[in-house]
Write a structure and sequence with these properties.
Structural class: alpha/beta
Order of helices and strands: HHEHEEHHEHHEHEHEHEHEH
Low-confidence stretches: 1-17, 19-36
Strand content: 5-15%
Number of strands: 9
Oligomer: single chain
Amino acid sequence: MKNGTKFGILAALLLLGVVAGFLSYKGSNSKYEPMDPAKIDSIEDLQAYFTYNPERDIIISAHRGGMQEGFPENCIASCEKTISEMPTFFEVDFSFTKDSVMVLMHDLTLDRTTTGKGAVEDYTYEEIQQFNLVDRNGNVTDYKIPTLKELLDWGDHKIVFNFDNKYINTKGVSDERKQAALSFFARQLKEGGEWSMYHNIMLSVRSIEEALFYWNQGIRNVMFCVEISSPEMYEAYDKCDIPWNYIMAYIRLAVDPSMQEIYDKLHANGVMTMTSITGSSDKVKNDFDRHVAYFRELLAEPDIIETDYPSQFIGLPWDRKTLHSYKK
């Protein structure tokens, strides 16, 4: 028998064993008891929540608030559903209405996620309430478009929110509009701003320049989710004024073995690493194959995995001890 054939058979047998192992674990896992995943009353509490610990369970983060059948993205009811099933924190997005109300909405248009049509900014908040949210399968739900303020009040002191400023990376948005969005965020976070009373906010930023924009304006009540996917990016943040305890590192779509030295440096600084699988494993069509893909993501052991479907990780092993047992 050729060596290549032998290797293929061994790899297949290993995969079958691993799959059988996680299915057995899934079947034995007890039901999650609802609990507050965090008690966030200060920036120090937020920093503690995102401090690396090699024995800590992997965190499954809910992208766009988590999505399930009948529960739309960026909806408080969806967040409530997810947090009732598992500990998590939420990445959320928002857009401005015509009368400058911030509403939860990933797109700058209504077409994909609601029964409405057109740009969010073409409607006042009152006008936008005529529409209903739809779930990921396009089914119309009873849920209305919530405001950011409603979400913040719901999660105050107990739920972490990772804010994604869609005006920064959405195609077609002018530089002037991007700068206006940055300035708006900064005003809300400064003393006296509408967000300044909350201690559970992380900002996703697209560059070190964007992170420093906030830092240089004296903003110290949030943390930053920043991309560190190369040695050069690590060095840039290591040299900048932002302390490591204000940073969580986004390492892109998957753990990269060639970056292990950088991961070790991040961990030595107390920084957690996060992969986002919304464009990779989340896209696997077949349910079984997708769960196998999720298990592989867990075995790679990023500290945080961001996914569109957090509830589909229920029953898979998130704890380090169990994951390590599969690698022996």
